[in-house]
Amino acid sequence: MPHATQHADAPTVATVATVATAELDTALRGGPFHVALRAAIAARGLPLQRVQHHLSRRGVKVGVTSLSYWQQGARRPQRPESLRAVRALEEILQLPEESLIRLLAEADDHSTLQQPAARSYRSLVEASGVLEQLLAELDCSTDGGLHTLAHHELVRIGARRELAGRESHHIVRAHRDGVDRFLAVHHGDPGCVPERMTVRAVENCRTGRVRWHHDTGVLVAELLFGARLRAGDTYLFRYGVEDGTADVCREYARGFPLAGGQYALQVRFAGNALPIRCHRFSQHSAAAPRSGRQGLALSALHRSVHLVEPRVRSGIVGIGWDWE
């Protein structure tokens, strides 16, 4: 009769379980929160869908995407409903009471000292998929019938070191007849609450429909021109986004799917929240390593730093900074 043969060096189920439990014990003692959560889920052998199901049975609504972000460290539970979910997770995953909550509190105490990594490639890809869905809801493509000739952007960092908001001044040219709107996209920092953000039409436009996705922090706003452009027509308009809903901000980046015109980015800091150093960076794509790092001078008089790209190339460009 055929029988299975186990190699001497193959781990048994008991061995795997022992290793998982040891990793969980270590993570619960030292954290951080996302590592402990991931270890607890692995030790119990529960897929995220089952974890979500157990939460739902306890009257707690959390999406699988949010759970995934929590265990990756891309986002951290902050809202009252999210903290209720963490307490429920301690019960579901058979953890000591307050074990995960304690790690969250410790992370909050040291948040100003930590330097989180840039957004992961996976999170950027997921945000890109969400953006396509939101654009589809507004019956618009990422192109929109407009070429950008110039884009000047002012980003404001608030007294809590948060992304308080930004204002964009666009000069565009229509490359087909009938274009009468622009789709503005805002990516909030991890922990943001897009439903609390507001979009301001500043000049030569008015705000139309607004769509957002909570888990990825993506917001899309329709800016209406009030007139239909013909192919070749140029148009100038300004709009702003009030944010201020996330934690400490350490960088701001803008993605360009196509090469285009001039881009100028200015970051202005609140008087009591000045960084100790600033730098420029770029990426060929979300999956590529960062390059082009270059120190930028911070103007103490204007509390700001800036960069100018005379002609942008496809990819990502941004400014990062270090707090003390």
How would you concisely characterize the structure shown here?
Helices cover 28% and strands 34% of the residues. It is of the alpha+beta class and 324 residues long. Strand 10 and strand 11 (291-296) form a beta hairpin.
Describe the structure.
- The longest helix has 18 residues.
- The protein folds into 2 domains: 97 residues, Orthogonal Bundle (434 Repressor (Amino-terminal Domain)); 202 residues, Sandwich (Immunoglobulin-like), CATH 2.60.40.
- A hairpin with a 4-residue loop joins strand 5 and strand 6.
- With 324 residues, it is of the alpha+beta class.
SSE string: HHHHHHHEEEEEEEEEEEEE
Bin the strand percentage: 25-35%
Q: Main β-sheet: number of strands, strand sense, barrel status? A: 6 strands, mixed
Structural class: alpha+beta
Q: Give unreliable regions as ranges.
A: 1-19, 108-118
Distance N to C terminus: 70 Å
Count of individual domains: 2
| Average pLDDT taken over every residue | 83
Number of helices: 7
Helix content: 25-40%
Please give the radius of gyration in angstroms. Answer: 23 Å
The largest beta-sheet arranges its strands as: 4-7-2-1-9-12
Shape, please?
globular
CATH class of the largest domain: Mainly Beta
According to CATH, the fold-level topology of the largest domain is Immunoglobulin-like
CATH architecture of the largest domain: Sandwich
**Using DSSP, what is the number of strands?**
13
